[in-house]
Amino acid sequence: MKKIFAVLLTGVLLVCCGCGAEQAGQVRQIQNVDTAMGTVISQTLYTTGDETETAAEIMELLRKLEEDVLSRRLDTSEVWSLNAAAGSAEGCSLSDPMEEILEGCLEIWEKSDEAFDVTMGPVVSLWDIDSWAAGEKEGMFAPPEEEQLQNALEICGSGSLDIRGNRLYLPDGAQLDLGAVGKGIALDHILAYLREKDEITGAVISLGGSVLTYGQKPDGGCWNVGIANPEDTASNVGILTLEGEWFISTSGDYERYMEVDGIRYHHIIDPATGYPADSGVAGVTILAKDGFLSDALSTACFILGEERGLALAENFGAEALFVGKDGSITMSRGMKAYYHSGK
Ligand code: AMP
Ligand code: MG
Description:
By secondary structure, this protein is an alpha+beta fold. The protein is 29% helix and 29% strand. Helix 3 (96-111) packs parallel to helix 8, helix 7 runs antiparallel to helix 8 (291-304) and helix 8 (291-304) packs antiparallel against helix 9.
């Protein structure tokens, strides 16, 4: 068996950001690389101030979001409490932001023909690709048994998300997994934070496969965000040239996976089968004005494949770029204004 560990910082490569702290007129550049939410966090900040705590505050914001809201593993989080209450007649109280998140997820579930489904927790747990790929598990990886998968699939389905009077009622055994939207939600929080900071004039923040661009560079130039080549994540298949605020999210079969006997088992599961999605796509990048949306759509479009994925992105006013398993590149009409091959 060939065991392959995931490369975390793969989906999107930052291009032309420079390194270390630099001075350009009155604007200083701060670079910071750290880990949170199970991924590598890379920050490039441009500031007119002399404070250095912004990067640390952003890391703190991410860790709190994980601990208090999003984590499935930590018993301090809202998602944990909601899952722990599954099957109880009383349900569990929902915060307003969580209600908004779940309503957003339900909309994408409906419009994606149920491909995007945040109640896939029981099936995601059976595969547990993230732990395997991160090297947290000892021993030999093997796909789950078919019967186990079918049993787990029976308790999945966003149709059973019952939201009433600021409470969520989940059926017995149901488990929410917000892994497909967590990084996008986090980037939405970071954008709100940056907007409060007058001294920050520009920023590029990358959380694994999701990136936020904000403000502008000291020289007024555009942000260049590379789209990773699924075949070789150290290179890219093109560059998006962007001005101001954008969210760029990539989902790919190369982000977290295990390979056995030449078969790649990755972390994005098709609810129709219970197996890793196989739509002919190796990576999808979404460009949008909202972090939640860009992250949700990249996962959904990966499962749906090019044709249905393009229609879904268009439905939400987002741009999409697909890299096929054969290396082909297909994109929405609007994406062409931002993309160049870099060659
Ligand atoms: P992303 O990397 O944003 O595409 O999200 C992948 C993560 O979303 C996985 O690691 C799972 O936690 C979760 N996930 C897997 N399959 C699905 C699905 N069909 N719908 C929603 N979330 C999923
Ligand atoms: Mg996603």
